[in-house]
Structures are given as structure tokens and as C-alpha cells.
């Protein structure tokens, strides 16, 4: 069983699969080839083999330059930042429909602070008796 590849990056010569689907640096498919053939191609073109899709049959690798690898790592880091984080905080606030003006202003300031801190805010409004 090959080890799982956690991070995107150059894999160098440690390729656990015998048959690979290789894509060149321009995004064109070079087809399926043996690991030794892919490594030879990598050396000839002075590029690095990077794992793109491990779950595919055969696994998909791409020949990339160091610059392309760096740009892809930056894109992935940006996507990860933009996505929701584990342990996202949800703040909940409840209002009465008969709330005084100054209390309403205080609570809206509190909500604004929470939103600046990227919290999810849930507001409940209760009907006054």
C-alpha cells in the first residue's frame, strides 16, 4: 500500500506506483507510462514530477518547473485560507422586540465586532409580551 501524499509538492524520485498517467508542463497528456520512463523524461527536461490525483487509476502526475510548483502551492494556500476553518465560532444574540434604543446600539456594536473577527453570528428576536 503506497503512503498517502499529504501536501502538494515535488515528489522527486520516490514514486510508489509502477504505471503513471503523465501530463507535461503545458497541461497536455503524455499518456500512461512506466515509472522509469517518467523519471527519464523528468531528467531530460529538467523538471519535477508532481502528484496531482492519487485516487485515479493510474495515478496522475504532472511535469512542472519549480516556478509552477511554487505558484500552485500559493493558490492552494489561498484557497485554504478562504475556506471555513475547523472550530468556527458561532455567536448567538437574542433581542426582545421591545428593546430600548441604547441597548440596541450596544448589541449592534457587539455584532459588528464579532463579524470583524470572522465569527458567524446568529440573531434571535423574541416578541415582547
UniProtKB/TrEMBL annotation:
<dbReference type="GO" id="GO:0032790">
    <property type="term" value="P:ribosome disassembly"/>
</dbReference>
<dbReference type="InterPro" id="IPR036787">
    <property type="entry name" value="T_IF-3_N_sf"/>
</dbReference>
<keyword id="KW-0648">Protein biosynthesis</keyword>
<protein>
    <submittedName>
        <fullName>Translation initiation factor IF-3, mitochondrial</fullName>
    </submittedName>
</protein>
<dbReference type="GO" id="GO:0043022">
    <property type="term" value="F:ribosome binding"/>
</dbReference>
<dbReference type="GO" id="GO:0070124">
    <property type="term" value="P:mitochondrial translational initiation"/>
</dbReference>
<comment type="similarity">
    <text>Belongs to the IF-3 family.</text>
</comment>
<dbReference type="GO" id="GO:0003743">
    <property type="term" value="F:translation initiation factor activity"/>
</dbReference>
<dbReference type="InterPro" id="IPR019814">
    <property type="entry name" value="Translation_initiation_fac_3_N"/>
</dbReference>
<dbReference type="GO" id="GO:0005739">
    <property type="term" value="C:mitochondrion"/>
</dbReference>
<dbReference type="InterPro" id="IPR001288">
    <property type="entry name" value="Translation_initiation_fac_3"/>
</dbReference>
<dbReference type="InterPro" id="IPR036788">
    <property type="entry name" value="T_IF-3_C_sf"/>
</dbReference>
<keyword id="KW-0396">Initiation factor</keyword>
<feature type="domain" description="Translation initiation factor 3 N-terminal">
    <location>
        <begin position="11"/>
        <end position="78"/>
    </location>
</feature>
<dbReference type="Pfam" id="PF05198">
    <property type="entry name" value="IF3_N"/>
</dbReference>
Amino acid at each position: 500500500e503506497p503512503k498517502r501524499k499529504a501536501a502538494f509538492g515535488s515528489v522527486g524520485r520516490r514514486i510508489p506506483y509502477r504505471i503513471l498517467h503523465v501530463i507535461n508542463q503545458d497541461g497536455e497528456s503524455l499518456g500512461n507510462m512506466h515509472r522509469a520512463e517518467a523519471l527519464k523524461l523528468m531528467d531530460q527536461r529538467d523538471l519535477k514530477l508532481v502528484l496531482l490525483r492519487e485516487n485515479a487509476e493510474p495515478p496522475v502526475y504532472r511535469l512542472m518547473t519549480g516556478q509552477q510548483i511554487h505558484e500552485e502551492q500559493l493558490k492552494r494556500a489561498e484557497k485554504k485560507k478562504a475556506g471555513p476553518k475547523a472550530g468556527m465560532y458561532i455567536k448567538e444574540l437574542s433581542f426582545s422586540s421591545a428593546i430600548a434604543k441604547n441597548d440596541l446600539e450596544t448589541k449592534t456594536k457587539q455584532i459588528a465586532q464579532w463579524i470583524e473577527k470572522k465569527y458567524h453570528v446568529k440573531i434571535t428576536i423574541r416578541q415582547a409580551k
